[in-house]
Amino acid sequence: MIRLTNRATIAQACLNRLASSVYLEIGVFTGSCFSRIAANRKIAVDPRFRVSRRRRARSESRADQTDFFEMRSDDFFAQNEGLLSEHPIDVALVDGLHTYEQTLRDIENVLRFQRGSGVIVVHDCNPKWESVGYPARDYKDFRKRYPLRFAWSGDVWKAIVHLRSTRPDLDVTVLDCDWGVGLIKHGQAEPRLDYSPEQIESLSYADLARDRARLLNLKSPGYLPEFLAA
C-alpha cells in the first residue's frame, strides 16, 4: 500500500492501476520526483535539467523507455505531436512554471494528448502562506520579492478555479498535501464554480485563504481511490 503523501506517490498510485502506462512530467528539474516513478514509458520535459547521473540511471531503470526533452513545455507540445499521438498520456505531472497562465496552458496541452481514462496531477495548488502564493513571473522574480524564502507555488491554484468554472466535462479536485496536489480527469464536474475568466484573473491570495476548501474542492489524500473509481 502506497502512502499518499506527495505528488510522486499520488502519480504512482494513478499509474499502478494500469497494465501499460505512459507518464509525462513537466518541470523535472533535478529529477527528484521523476526518478521515483515506474511506468512503461516515461517522458521528462524541462527547459534546464539538473538531473544527476545517478538519478538519470535510476529514472531509466524504472521504465522500458525514457525520453528527456530539454525545452520549454510549449515547444515540446508543438514539436512532438507525432510522439504524443502514437503514445497517448496516461498520467501527467504538471509542475513547471508556477503561474496561472502557464499551468493552464500545460494542462490544456496535456488534455489534447491524453488517453480518455488519463489523469493529470498538478503540484502547488494550495499554498498555505501568502508569500508562497505570490504571483511572480518566475522563481527569480519571487526571490526578489521574498529573498529569505525558498518555497514558491505562485498562483497555480487559479488554474484549478478556471477549470472548475469553465470545463463541465472535467472532474477536478485538490488533495490537501504537498502544497496541494490537484487531480484532473474526464468526468462529471461536481460541484462546479461559476467564475468568469475576468473574475478569476482578479482573485487574490486573500480570496483563496478565505474560501480554499470551496475554491479548490479540497479533499484529504485518502480521497484518491474514490476519485479514480468515479
Description:
- The chain is α/β, with parallel strands linked by helices and 230 residues long.
- It is 37% helix and 20% strand.
- The protein has 10 helices and 8 strands.
- It has helices at residues 7-16, 53-61, 73-79, 81-86, 100-112, 139-145, 157-166, 197-202, 205-216, 224-229; strands spanning 22-26, 41-46, 65-70, 89-94, 114-122, 170-175, 181-186, 218-219.
- An 8-stranded mixed β-sheet has the order 3-2-1-4-5-7-6-8, with helices on both faces.
- Helix 5 crosses helix 7 (157-166).
- The chain is globular, with a radius of gyration of 17 Å.
- The mean pLDDT is 96.
What gyration radius follows from the Cα positions, in whole Å?
17 Å
Task: Please describe the biggest sheet, giving its number of strands, its sense, and whether it closes into a barrel.
Answer: 8 strands, mixed
Strand order of the largest sheet: 3-2-1-4-5-7-6-8
Please count the helical segments. 10
Structural class: alpha/beta
Helix content: 25-40%
| Average pLDDT figure | 96
Order of SSEs, N→C?
HEEHEHHEHEHHEEHHEH
- The tally of beta strands, per DSSP, is 8
What gap, in angstroms, lies between the N and C termini?
20 Å
